[in-house]
Amino acid sequence: MVIVQREKFDTGAEFNRLTEGRTDIGAVVTFTGLVRDFNDGSNVTSLTLEHYPGMTEKELEKIEAAARERWALTECLIIHRFGKMDLGEPIVLVITASAHRGDAFAAAEFLMDWLKTKAPFWKLEANSEGENDWVKERESDHDAAKRWQ
Amino acid sequence: MKILYFAWLRSKLGISEEDVTLPGHVTTLYQLIDWLKSRNPAFEEIFQDLSVIRVAIDQEYVTEDIPLGNAREVAFFPPVTGG
């Protein structure tokens, strides 16, 4: 399932919702991305995420479908936020559930790697000098995504 | 046709979207870009280096010059930085 929202999410609550009453799930992996206070040497004070409504959901759904094709997932959840976020707030959540840990671990990493290079989101960082800078893409993110091709 | 701009393209142009009627000679993506550039120096500037621009036609990534056909929506944006 794919959810794109402005509101904060609660990783624990999402985990509980996904696993409640289930006896076929042997492994759950959760990844939560947070707003940190530094990037490329500058002090970040807040983050604003812009996205492409419509295409964002389509791309995330394609990424989920690709993960489900490669691994045996019983559940898969992607939540990605947009709008302004303060330091420490959650940005993105990926939860993968499977019978065994191998599929859940691999699929969670794959989902994040592909999401980073395909989902149409853009980060605008505010820093302690009062500037707002668009975050640049990272070569390391592309290298990470290429591992799965 | 609707044209969308995101992130620094949007902030440099000061617009997020516009509806355009294409002249008859504009039938491919690159012709569209050339036509957008010809209208105004701000567009000339943002499309100066196409290696830093990503394009989606009707919300699907496009990486080469293709016919626009009956496309309803063309979006221009920088490489994505979500997650």
Write a structural description.
Chain A: Pfam families: MoaE. Chain A: It catalyses: 2 [molybdopterin-synthase sulfur-carrier protein]-C-terminal-Gly-aminoethanethioate + cyclic pyranopterin phosphate + H2O = molybdopterin + 2 [molybdopterin-synthase sulfur-carrier protein]-C-terminal Gly-Gly + 2 H(+). Chain A: Its EC number is 2.8.1.12. Chain A: InterPro entries: MoaE_sf, Mopterin_biosynth_MoaE. The complex is a heterodimer of chains A (149) and B (83). Chain A has a single domain, classed as Aldehyde Oxidoreductase, domain 3 (Alpha-Beta Complex), CATH 3.90.1170. In chain A, strand 8 and strand 9 form a beta hairpin. Chain A is 34% helix and 38% strand. By secondary structure, chain A is an alpha+beta fold. Chain B is α+β, with helices and mostly antiparallel strands and 83 residues long. Chain B has a five-stranded mixed β-sheet with strand order 2-1-5-3-4. The longest helix of chain B has 11 residues, at 29-39.
How many alpha or pi helices of chain A? 4
Per CATH, the superfamily of chain A is Molybdopterin biosynthesis MoaE subunit
* DSSP helix fraction of chain A: 25-40%
Give the strand tally of chain B.
Answer: 5
Q: What can be said about the biggest beta sheet of chain B?
A: 5 strands, mixed
Indicate the low-confidence ranges of chain B by residue numbers.
none
Determine the mean pLDDT of chain B.
Answer: 97
Mean pLDDT across every amino acid position of chain A: 96
Briefly note the structural class of the backbone of chain A.
alpha+beta
What is the level 1 CATH name of chain B? Alpha Beta
Rg of chain A, Cα atoms, Å: 16 Å
The 3D shape of chain B can be described as: globular
Oligomeric composition of the shown chains: heterodimer
Beta-strand percentage range of chain A: 35-45%
Instruction: Kindly report how far apart the N and C termini of chain B lie.
Output: 30 Å
Q: Examine the coordinates and then state which fold CATH places here, giving the name of the CATH topology of chain A.
A: Aldehyde Oxidoreductase, domain 3
Please provide the count of β strands of chain A.
Answer: 9
**How many domain regions of chain A?**
1
CATH architecture label of chain A: Alpha-Beta Complex
Which CATH class of chain A is shown?
Alpha Beta
InterPro entries (chain A): MoaE_sf, Mopterin_biosynth_MoaE
Pathway (chain A): Cofactor biosynthesis; molybdopterin biosynthesis
Function (chain A): Converts molybdopterin precursor Z into molybdopterin. This requires the incorporation of two sulfur atoms into precursor Z to generate a dithiolene group. The sulfur is provided by MoaD.
Pfam families (chain A): MoaE
